[in-house]
Design goal:
The protein has 387 residues and is of the alpha+beta class. Helix content is 36%, strand content 24%. It is built from 15 helices and 16 strands.
Length: 387
């Protein structure tokens, strides 16, 4: 099986995806912005061929590099990345090289938030009210039905980048006065409540072979715009309504051989509304949280799934795992060494975050696990306590 893997060097914890592919017998070719000699040794060893393309935004350069790789390894069977940023590139390469999987037309419902809503509704999954931000009049109509505050976000965007809260008519006018007309936006009602996700992996037939759920202390928009700490944790039991809506959405979007991350808001009354779907693994260290929550190797299981259609591990969620982020601009009451002395028995991983999303998830992160969340809350408080 010949697989083209886009940017196998990033983010660092994803390096195990191409490594595990090779271990499963695949021939892996890579394209990325870093020179070959700057890739981690295990990534270099996993690649049969590699092309360095400094400007990955230049499709002509990427296309020529892919053609060169095909001449060396043969016809491609799959094209993969695990990053939202490259979904369009994956699809374009599949079209040009006639590779199975999503083509550019197929990815629109998972790339454009305005189209997502129709798919959610078609699957009988409740979703936030919203409409394209074409003009102030349409936004005022939404404000009249949903009320303020509203949220304005790029129709095609990742995370909370360039996302704004609008609290009144004056704020609405300011948004439209400053908005780049070349960037399509969508405006949605602001949903109060807790963010819960339905995450997992599908096999080549679209069956869910792995699932998980996480709850977030705050939204990513607040973490970015208000520069607040992020803490989120895995649930040992997935709420029944969350799993029901999540499974309906996965089927409706036609996800095959893909990770997924679907975000919902659970209101103070307890009902759920879908916010958006991402056809990739949840970001940060969440794939490692999958592993520690289940004592599995999700990188290996993904490689088994795409090369042979099988997921062999038993994922029974014996642990809660907490992601606890720190930010360099804040001063903390306890040093890293004190954290490890006090809570090292529960901390299973800690690392600097090498990602463009540090502003959201933190510059340094700890993963802690326990069978009961009551044991993890003091760890979170100790790590994030400020001086």
């Amino acid at each position: 099986m010949n697989i083209l893997y886009i940017c196998p060097n990033f983010p660092p914890n994803y390096r195990r995806f191409p490594v595990r592919l090779k271990e499963q017998g695949a021939t892996v070719a890579g394209i990325g912005w870093e020179p070959l000699d700057r890739l981690r040794p295990e990534v270099r060893q996993s690649l049969a061929e590699y092309c360095h393309v400094p400007d990955m935004g230049n499709y002509d350069h990427v296309l020529r590099a892919a053609g060169c790789l095909v001449s060396r390894v043969g016809r491609l069977d799959r094209v993969f990345s695990q990053e939202e940023h490259w979904i369009d590139l994956e699809a374009a390469l599949r079209l040009d090289f006639n590779v199975p999987g999503w083509k550019p037309r197929d990815i629109l419902p998972v790339r454009l938030k305005s189209l997502m809503k129709g798919v959610f509704r078609g699957a009988a999954v409740p979703v936030a009210q919203g409409e394209p931000a074409a003009d102030p009049a349409g936004a005022r109509r939404l404000a009249g039905s949903a009320g303020y505050p509203l949220i304005a976000k790029p129709d095609k965007g990742v995370g909370a980048h360039a996302t704004f809260r609008i609290d009144d008519d004056a704020g609405l006018e300011r948004f439209f006065a400053k908005k780049d007309p070349a960037v399509p936006y969508i405006i949605e009602e602001f949903l109060e409540g807790d963010i819960q996700s339905f995450d997992g992996l599908t096999d080549p037939e679209g069956r869910i072979v792995f699932s998980a759920s996480h709850q977030f202390s705050i939204g990513i928009m607040a973490a970015v715009n208000e520069n607040r700490h992020l803490h989120y944790w895995s649930l040992r039991e997935i709420p029944a309504d969350l799993e029901d809506f999540g499974r309906k959405a996965v089927a409706a979007f036609g996800l095959r051989e893909r990770f997924f991350h679907i975000e919902f808001i659970r209101s103070p009354r307890g009902d759920l509304r879908a916010m958006e779907i991402n056809a990739r693994p949840p970001g940060g260290l969440t794939t490692d949280m999958f592993n520690y929550a289940n004592d599995i190797d999700i990188y290996l299981e993904w490689a088994r799934t795409v090369t042979g259609g099988r997921f062999e591990a038993r994922a029974e969620r014996p642990y809660h795992v907490s992601y606890i982020g720190r930010k360099n601009i804040r001063r903390y009451a306890h040093s890293h060494e004190e954290v490890l002395r006090r809570h090292g028995a529960l901390i299973v991983m800690h690392t600097a975050i090498d990602s463009v999303f540090r502003g959201a998830i933190g510059d340094y992160a700890y993963l802690a696990r326990a069978t009961d969340m009551d044991a993890l809350r003091p760890v979170v408080e100790f790590i994030q306590e400020e001086a």
